[in-house]
Every structure is written in structure tokens, then in C-alpha cells.
Amino acid sequence: MALSVTETLIKPLEKFRKEQLGAVKEEKKKFDKETEKNYSLIDKHLNLSAKKKDSHLQEADIQVEQNRQHFYELSLEYVCKLQEIQERKKFEFVEPMLSFFQGMFTFYHQGHELAKDFNHYKMELQINIQNTRNRFEGTRSEVEDLMNKIRQNPKDHKRASQFTAEGYLYVQEKRPAPFGSSWVKHYCMYRKAAKKFNMIPFEHRSGGKLGDGEVIFLKECTKRPADSIDRRFCFDVEAADRPGVPVTVQAFSEEERKQWLEALGGKEALFHSFNRAIIPRPEGSAQLDKMGFTIIRKCISAVETRGINDQGLYRVVGVSSKVQRLLSMLMDVKTCNELDLENSVDWEVKTITSALKQYLRSLPEPLMTYELHGDFIIPASKYYVEVNEHSFVFNSVFKLQFPHENLTSCYCNLC
């Protein structure tokens, strides 16, 4: 009896565990390894600076796309394997049990009548097993056909969703000066009818654990220009209850950014050269107010004191992280008053000049204004009569209004 139990029940189940479940475990290890590799490559790819050469960026994009296709294929195979093992359990587990009962009924002569009583159940179970096996073969064929269809047209087989758009985005989380900001992966969902935008922090290394989400009601969405931020595929979303405080997010690719902008009703950030317009500015809130004049005069005074004889004074740029840190401290009322740029060795002259240039670029309107842009461009034309050039520029400068005229005087003294 013990031998019969071993041969008919234990060994088949052990064989199923080793061959079928063992194969699935190996597939899972392979899938987990490729998952980690895929996310690491995406993280590395998204950290590429937009200042890299186009050839380098295109090569990186191609590599990520190839890796995505490979991961896509592996995911389909893994799902197919899981479905197969689920179906196999329905007969691989029950069939050894049936064999065990058959042997037990044969072994026990006194159980002959009992075996007869169970005969109808045994036959019904046998039929069900055969039907299950047949369904398994048919289901496996259907799954393989569906897998091939998904491979050919993945966009036509996306699951139905209650959201207008959903997916992973990197959200910029700003920190107090001088710590800059960090980018955190979120799973975002948007309902267009309610203009409700959900952001849930997600970390795949923690087993897909979700953090506390945040809900904002969308006011507007704006595409970030490439020269306004050091990352690609970025756009801003602004909440209705926090006007003027946009949240910067990053998509995984240009195509995904276009899809999000279309769903959110996003618009391009327009830069007008010859008329006044509202221009989405880079990070910071530079203004020509009292605080702005204090920042500019502090930088100019430091340059006059320490670097007036330096070669390439405004041509040589400082380290980006140091420039951003200095700007953050200058634009904070508390830290700005404590900064002594004239006597501090912590801040290089090139860092100060780069911060000054960045502040001017962040102004809502250029120093010479949009209105007078054409007047200043005309003297630069090679067809312009040289005799009238200086007088034309002189007259254009005097057309400037406060505070642009006042700030121009500061730069005249520096020059």
C-alpha cells in the first residue's frame, strides 16, 4: 500500500513540482532580473542630459527601445507560462489522486462495494479531467494566437480604462535651498471630465509598494521648452488651487509626452520675440523689483571687486549645481542678506557671472524689452549706415522705462 501511494501519488506530484513549478520559478527569476535591468536602463536613460550630442541621444533612444521590445517579449512569455501552469494544476493534481483511489480500491477487497458506490463519481471525474485537458489545449492555442496578435498590434489590445490617461511619470520634488530638487517615480491617472489628476509614488525595488497619493484639480498644462530644463520630455501641470506654482513632470519618451499633453489639453510654451507675451519661465521667480535689484547689484559689485581683470569674464561658465545653489540662496531673503560675495572664497567669479546671466534669462521680459527689440536689432544689420548707428542705439536706450532703464545704467557702469 505504501509503495502504491509512492508510485501513484507522491512521485507524480513530485515530478510536477520539479519539472513544471521549477520551470516557472526559473522563468520568474529571469523575469525579475530583466525587470531590474529594464528599470535601471530607463532610469539611466532619463538621467541623460539634454545637452548631450544628438547622435548620443539617438543611440541611447534606440538602445532603450530595443531593450523595451525585449522586455515586452519576455513579459508575454512569462504571462503565458503562468497561465499554462494554472491550467495544468487542474489535471496534474487531480489525476494522481484518481490513480491513488483506483489502487486503493483494488488493494482492499472489502472496499469493492465502496468502489462501486464511487464508480459514478469516478467516471464523472474522468470525463471532467478529459474535458479539462481538451480545454487546456484549446485555451493554450487561443493564448498563443492572442500573444501573436498583441505582438503585431500592441496599441490595438490595450485594456479599457476609466481614466483619460494613466501611466508612470517622474515628478520633480523641490527642496529648500540649497538642496535643489529630486525626481520621484509616480503612477499618474487623469480624468478629463473632472480635471482630476492623481499622483501616487511608486518604487519598484520595494516590491511595487505604493506611497500616499496626491490629488490636484488641473488648471492648465504646458510643455517645457528644451532649453528651460536639463531633462528631456518634461511638461508642467498647474493646480487650480495653487496658481503660479506648477509641478514639473517627465515622461519616458517624446511620444508619451505628446499623449499626456493631448489628454491634459497641454499647450506649447510660446516665446515671442517682437511683442509682449506671457512667457513660461524656467525655474525661479526672477523679477525687476527691489529684491531683484539687490541680487543684481550684489553680483555686479562682487565682479567689480574680484574679477574685473579676469579674461573671459562672462564667457567662462560655472558649474551648474553651484550656480543653481547660489541662485537659490540669492533669491531667498534670509540667505541673500547674509551672503558676502565680495570677500567669500566659496564662490568663484565664473559662478557669480553665470548666476547673474541665469537670473537675467529668467526675467519675465528681456532687459531691452520686447517692444524695442526691433530698434536694437536694426543697427546690427550689415546694411545699416555706420554713421547713424551710435545715435540710433542712444535714442533706443532712452526709450526704456523704469525699471529697465535703471538696470541698464548699472550695466553701463560695469562695462
TrEMBL record:
Keyword set includes Coiled coil: yes
Instruction: List, for all copies, the residue spans of the domain called PH.
Output: 162-269
Q: Which UniProt keywords apply?
A: Coiled coil, GTPase activation
Instruction: Name the source's superkingdom.
Output: Eukaryota
Q: Which residues form the Rho-GAP domain?
A: 286-415
Q: Which SMART domains match?
A: PH, RhoGAP
CDD domains on file: BAR-PH_GRAF_family (cd01249)
Q: Which residues form a coiled coil?
A: 122-149
Query: Could you state a single Gene Ontology molecular function term?
Result: GTPase activator activity
Instruction: Please provide one cellular component term from the Gene Ontology annotations of this protein.
Output: cytosol
List this protein's GO terms for biological process. Answer: cytoskeleton organization; negative regulation of apoptotic process; signal transduction
Q: Which Pfam families match?
A: BAR_3, PH, RhoGAP
Classification via InterPro entries: AH/BAR_dom_sf (IPR027267), BAR_dom (IPR004148), GRAF_fam (IPR047234), PH-like_dom_sf (IPR011993), PH_domain (IPR001849), PH_GRAF (IPR047225), Rho_GTPase_activation_prot (IPR008936), RhoGAP_dom (IPR000198)
Instruction: Report what the protein is called.
Output: Rho GTPase activating protein 10
Q: Which organism is it from?
A: Rousettus aegyptiacus
